Amino acid sequence: MKPNDQFSFVKNNLISQDSTNLIRLYLPILGFDATSIYQYFLAFWDNGKSSYTFGHILNHLNLGMNALQKSLEMLSAMQLVELYHAENHFQVYLQPTLSSGEFLSNPVYKRLLEKKIGEAAVEALLPSQPKGEKQGVKLSEIFQVEDAKAEMQSKQNHFELDYFKQLMARENLRFENEKEDLLVLFAISEQQNWTWYETYLLAKETAVGHVISTKRMKQKLNQKPAASGFSNAEQTIIRETKSKSAMQFLAEIKKTKHATITRGERQCLQELANLGLLDEVINVILLLTFNKVNSANLNEKYALKAANDFSYQKIFSAEEAVVYIRERYQTQHSKKAAKDFAPKNNVPSWSNPDYKNETSAEKQAELEEQKRKLLAKLDQGGD
User: What predicted TM-score, i.e. pTM, was given to this entire model?
Assistant: First the structure.
């Protein structure tokens, strides 16, 4: 878009001007530039008879091109202006402002307004509810319209959010911060072009202790397609770390050491999850940590240190974690590095790349020896 590009208005797109709600509800969110541009469109609307350049807007409102483009994006996001482009020409399609009730019944719009003017100020804008029993008849009863649907689009998001909360209650899930989480959930739903139900499925999958974690939802969405070229040992690690929750994975490791999970270890898992790391990444950290320190208990300090590193490196999957460990420690050509990250203790039997479901004493003894070499193979890039 350039200042000399031309635009015109869509024919028969006359809308009523509601300056009251524009100033009371939209202005705090949009700011003065975007609000002024919307008012410009209303004032210069001519039923599509003429064409204008964007430079006309810049000159009339004393704005720069960057401010114009940013404002048009905001007006589009708030569903006040739709911009269409074809054959080097733009068309402007205007949408009316919502009524006060419609605007404030939209939980996303309401929260955006609260962030600008505060909850108390928004509360003062809420329309009071009528008292008594509503008197009315259905449209179909008066005009013989079959299957009439008079629900507004603006109500649908609210209904779907209510349904989202019903599903949460069924699964005993809760928000950490409902108002802030709501904005992130809405953004995910919009960016992924998902329904609220599809968004809920991801929220449920990535929840931590029955609390929705928008950080982990973002981590899951940022996962890249699985890479190839993994060794047998690495493939086994990836498969197992993806198949178990962090608590299950830790319990399996502790079982091989004839130990139980401590309160401190549970708290450590919670802290790792609070960083936004997915369980599959946490599981790789657990495996690395237990093979770093020869103990029946998790070295929480080392695990948190590794987790901070993984979070900083933006590692979103078990595959990325395995590659990172492999590449990082391959470059550390020192005896100390080899000593620090060589396996020192037992890990679950599945860790052996040649594992088979056999229970003979001879085979079990062989596995006990092979599984001690797993992290060494991982550090060296596998087979």
Answer: 0.56
